[in-house]
Design a protein that fits this description.
49% of the residues are buried. α12 packs across α15. It contains 16 helices and eleven strands. The chain has an eight-stranded parallel β-barrel, surrounded by seven helices. The chain has 359 residues and is of the alpha/beta class. The radius of gyration is 19 Å and the shape is globular. It folds into two domains: 229 residues, Alpha-Beta Barrel (TIM Barrel); 100 residues, no CATH class. About 2% of the residues have low confidence. α4 links the parallel β3 and β4.
């Protein structure tokens, strides 16, 4: 039996049945997972940061061949070829453009003028207000429980601060807010709605599905973990990064900063060769990253380390040499459902919880 739909401003904006988003996870969110999420009634998002332009073009076409439902593409706003990738998305009729870093106002306008829904991810209320003033259609707000790059504030505090800063659901600057960080079931969806959100986004929960292309041996490594088995490390790429505790991460945490920097530069060079990027392009990206934030050149060099460490773990299945990004929620997950089974279970539980609330 199919769970009833649950309409929110987000589902109406994007045209999906359920207020559930599968986040754009590098090396994880490919066509099969994205299409499976879309076919199940949620919003699947392709992760393009680890793809070349040609790989992204193939991934979009492949996803379109697997689903006729709306889906999105996650972009790096500071990438040197961001404009070309946006043009590709426009030509291919992609519904949603999501960003890990806030895109420029001009880029938002270009996307919106061509019918795309723009959904940046933000980590603070002031950033939500800024991108809303620039024309963003919605925001994803991830609390500190989330995997990958994350902030220090828990979702239960960050989410209401963002909702309030945007004026609540009826405020003049109000746009749909999608809550991320710590969600895995229908209870979390109901809690997010109660805080004023319009849906939830999940990464680790979708990574641990049968539709995810992550090797089964790696999924089993995740399933063995408890709530205390993640750590926020700055030794992976110089920025706070929530990952599973592994021997490699422990070594990075306790190792020499100089050795870590040398290894990072070596991995950055390997990533450059794999993607066909030129050093001049990488330096331009680095300058853009430095200008847009507060990263040091050491952190920028280390940022080139991240894709290769994640690839080793999530694609090659080498958990000894790779890094496994993970939210704290990993300690509450013990199965590998399909995307359809996952979304149906979330929605069934959400409707049950809503019906059981005192009136």
């Amino acid at each position: 039996m199919t769970a009833p739909t649950l309409a929110t401003r987000f589902t109406e904006l994007v045209g999906v049945r359920y207020p559930i988003v599968q986040t754009g996870m590098g090396w994880v969110s490919g066509p099969s997972l994205t299409a499976a999420t879309a076919n199940a009634g949620g919003l699947g998002i392709l992760a393009s940061a680890t793809m070349t332009y040609d790989e992204l073009e193939f991934a979009i076409k492949k996803t379109k061949s697997l689903t006729d439902q709306p889906f999105g593409v996650n972009l790096r706003a500071d990438a040197t070829d961001a404009d070309e990738r946006v043009d590709l998305m426009i030509r291919e009729g992609v519904k949603v453009a999501s960003f890990a870093l806030a895109p420029k106002q001009e880029l938002i306008a270009k996307l919106k003028d061509n019918g795309l829904v723009v959904v940046p991810s933000i980590g603070a209320a002031k950033h939500a207000v800024k991108v809303a003033s620039w024309g963003a259609d919605a925001v994803i707000v991830q609390g500190g429980e989330g995997g990958g790059h994350t902030g220090p504030v828990a979702t239960t505090l960050l989410l209401p601060s963002v909702v309030d800063a945007l004026g609540g659901q009826d405020g003049p600057t109000s746009i749909p807010v999608i809550a991320a960080g710590g969600f895995f079931d229908g209870r979390g969806l109901v809690a997010a709605l109660a805080y004023g959100a319009d849906g939830i986004a999940m990464g680790t929960r979708f990574l641990l599905t049968s539709d995810s292309a992550v090797p089964d041996s790696v999924k089993q490594e995740y399933l063995k973990r408890s709530l205390n088995d993640t750590v926020v490390s700055t030794k992976v790429d110089g920025m706070p990064h929530r990952v599973l505790r592994t021997e490699l991460v422990q070594a990075l945490e306790s190792g020499s900063r100089v050795k870590a920097l040398v290894a990072a530069a070596r991995n950055a060079n390997e990533f450059k060769q794999m993607t066909g990027m030129r050093w001049t392009a990488m330096l331009r990206d680095g300058k853009a990253m430095k200008k847009s934030g507060e990263r040091t050149w050491q952190q920028i060099i280390m940022a080139g380390n991240t894709p290769m460490l994640l690839k080793a773990g999530l694609v090659d299945g080498n958990t000894d040499a790779g890094v496994l990004a993970s939210g704290q929620v990993v300690g509450l997950i013990d199965d590998l459902p399909s995307c359809d089974e996952l979304i149906q279970s979330v929605m069934t539980q959400a409707h049950a919880r809503l019906a059981a609330l005192p009136r």
